[in-house]
Amino acid sequence: MKTTFRLIRAVAVLLFALAPSLDAQSRPTADLIIRNARIWTVDKNHPTAQAVAVLRDRIVAVGSNDEIGAWRGAQTRVIDAAGKLLLPGFNDAHVHFVDGGLALDRVQLNDASSAEEFARRIAERTKATPKAEWVTGGDWDETKWNPARMPSKELIDPATPDTPVFVSRYDGHMALANSVTLRLAGITAKTPDPPGGVIVRDEQGNPTGALKDAAMDYVDKVQPPLSHDQRLKAVKRALAHAAALGVTSVQHMNPEYADIAVYQELLQGGELTARIYAAPLIPNVDDQVKIGVRHAFGSPFLRIGALKAYADGSLGSATAYFFAPFTNQPDNRGLLSDEMQPVSLMQDRMMRADAAGLQICTHAIGDQGISIILDLYNEIVKAHGESDRRFRIEHAQHMAAKDFDRFAQLHVIASVQPYHAIDDGRWAEERIGHDRASRTYAFRTFLDRGVRLALGTDWNVAPLNPMLTVYAAVTRATLDGKNPGGWFPEQKLTVPETVEAYTLGSAYAEFQESEKGSISPGKLADMVLLDGDIFTISPAKIRDVKVMKTIVGGKVVWDAANAEVH
Ligand SMILES: [Zn+2]
Fold this sequence. Notes:
Elements: H1 2-26, E1 32-35, E2 38-40, E3 48-49, E4 51-55, E5 58-63, H2 65-69, E6 77-80, E7 85-88, E8 90-95, H3 97-105, H4 115-127, E9 135-140, E10 165-169, E11 174-177, H5 179-185, E12 197-201, E13 207-213, H6 217-220, H7 228-244, E14 247-253, H8 257-268, E15 275-279, H9 285-291, E16 297-298, E17 302-304, E18 306-310, H10 343-355, E19 359-364, H11 367-384, E20 392-395, H12 404-409, E21 413-416, H13 418-424, H14 428-437, H15 443-448, E22 453-455, H16 466-475, H17 495-508, E23 527-530, E24 547-552, E25 555-559
Parallel strand pairs: 1-6, 2-7, 8-14, 9-10, 14-15, 15-17, 18-19, 19-20, 20-21, 21-22
Antiparallel strand pairs: 1-4, 2-3, 4-5, 7-23, 10-11, 11-13, 12-13, 16-17, 23-24, 24-25
Helix pairs in contact: 3-7, 7-8, 10-11, 13-16
Zinc ion binds at residues 94, 96, 253, 458, 461.
């Protein structure tokens, strides 16, 4: 007995002495620990925590400071979050990433408050623009001017005698050309309006410089194409912007193939700091069918296998397709897109896409546009049987009452952009009336009917900043300040619902919910540390919350403490 006891004691002492190294051998130490955080995990089993451990690009443990302390080693980088809020990184389910990057470097006209300010900014930019280069972009919005009026070339011609100017309205459905550009494009009083477009004219029939929809193609044809370097620069700008805003994943709608090539180049160089899912346009469906990729094909950083389709236009340009006419335009109920002329053309492409296992994301805004797409999705299920295909409707703005349940039955994801609600909410009711507006941006109804939401911004149509989107979803306070209690407040989401839709919901919409979207062991270490607690501050203050750190795959890609002000 005594000997046995001694032996046991000796083994115990030996084990005790070896414990640290044994432990080190049996379990590696973390590369990164974030402690003292208020963690909202978006993991239903463990909604909150204090600390998280990261090994290489994955989360390995989530728990209390003490539990996670066990993962600490000599090489572990430790971030003390000082009680700040840590969330899964935001996943923007609908962006135009290269356009966004380009817009960051272009003249900013969106917040100009008068025609004079609009003209002054264009004049300033023209002075700083090298000879032969164009002044483009802008995203102007004449409804924000006091007084509001449609701009014409006379406003900008004096300061731009040699520089081509072609600045677009924020909705992308109109642009203003100066006289240099009209000359280059060959647009005169004699030029006819193209099908689907309007050359705006003065009383004498002369072009004012404003071009609508297909009339903009005249200018697009004479604009120099984007060079590889311009595209690369735009993507780098966009990535830096996303990192600074806590956006760790983006779903790029209608990229050009050259954009995907740039992503691949950056990925190889280790410079891709956001994860990208790219959905090229459906008229090119056969490209992806031919190479045999299916949905979400690729690596955690870059995936393809989705298609973006267009059912109709937009509310702002009165081209969204409705069952009934616009309230303020009794002869107009909108337009189906050229991809839907005829609808069988779209059906054929969707059938080929689905048969190949590609995911379909369809832009549909008006109630009838949405209804027709649901019909098409239903036809696909009938033809090919049930499967986990995750159909999406992008924007899903104005639903017919009968269609909410069809979203649920067909498992269609509503990929929505709450910022549009507080922007369009300023004037939507004038155009579609109270009844239809009550089923507009109906995020609450979607959740109540069991429809999955994915959240995004449509950047650069709206700002990329997730705090503005959370603010919009939670307050529904229109930008004009006229609905402080919320525009159709019954459709407000709570902060937890919004965060979940913007992380796990968007991840689900790209077949990545087991890889990201929550702070859970085994998932990719994509996280964002905020300087304000959006769960407890007054909702009106959410839009002012800033990002302190953004972490993608365990690497800090944005740190406000080291950031240069720009
Ligand atoms: Zn879009």
